[in-house]
Amino acid sequence: MASRLNPYLSFRDDARQAMEFYKEVFGGTLRLNTFGEFGSPEGADADKVMHAQLEAENGFTLMASDTPAGMEHNPGTNISVSLSGDDADDLRGYWDKLSEGGTVTVPFEKQMWGDEFGACVDRFGIPWMVNVVHG
């Protein structure tokens, strides 16, 4: 898998509906996982989308999630740029450069789903997510 760059959209409670709509628009394969599937089966957010990924046949990739209760959600500022792939050296290098002088919001480390992941806001105020796929 090569590294890729794609939009990552944040929603309050309707990520599933939005991503199903985008699937109708672009076609392709949609994968959805809820917070309940990743360790919070009893929580208020259990049925909300923790991660959705639409991969269209034309190469478009769109990712999204619902914003958990208690986290700020401001329509208009609800997008991040996502870098993901299995080239760990390249992706770690991008992380180092993007987070330098910015604000780390999720430390870059192994996560419960098995990948290395981190989130930051760069020095220009742009939110980034970097995910190194393992497995």
UniProtKB/TrEMBL annotation:
<dbReference type="InterPro" id="IPR028973">
    <property type="entry name" value="PhnB-like"/>
</dbReference>
<dbReference type="InterPro" id="IPR029068">
    <property type="entry name" value="Glyas_Bleomycin-R_OHBP_Dase"/>
</dbReference>
<keyword id="KW-0830">Ubiquinone</keyword>
<protein>
    <submittedName>
        <fullName>3-demethylubiquinone-9 3-methyltransferase</fullName>
    </submittedName>
</protein>
<keyword id="KW-0489">Methyltransferase</keyword>
<dbReference type="InterPro" id="IPR004360">
    <property type="entry name" value="Glyas_Fos-R_dOase_dom"/>
</dbReference>
<feature type="domain" description="Glyoxalase/fosfomycin resistance/dioxygenase">
    <location>
        <begin position="4"/>
        <end position="129"/>
    </location>
</feature>
<dbReference type="GO" id="GO:0032259">
    <property type="term" value="P:methylation"/>
</dbReference>
<dbReference type="Pfam" id="PF00903">
    <property type="entry name" value="Glyoxalase"/>
</dbReference>
<keyword id="KW-0808">Transferase</keyword>
<dbReference type="GO" id="GO:0008168">
    <property type="term" value="F:methyltransferase activity"/>
</dbReference>
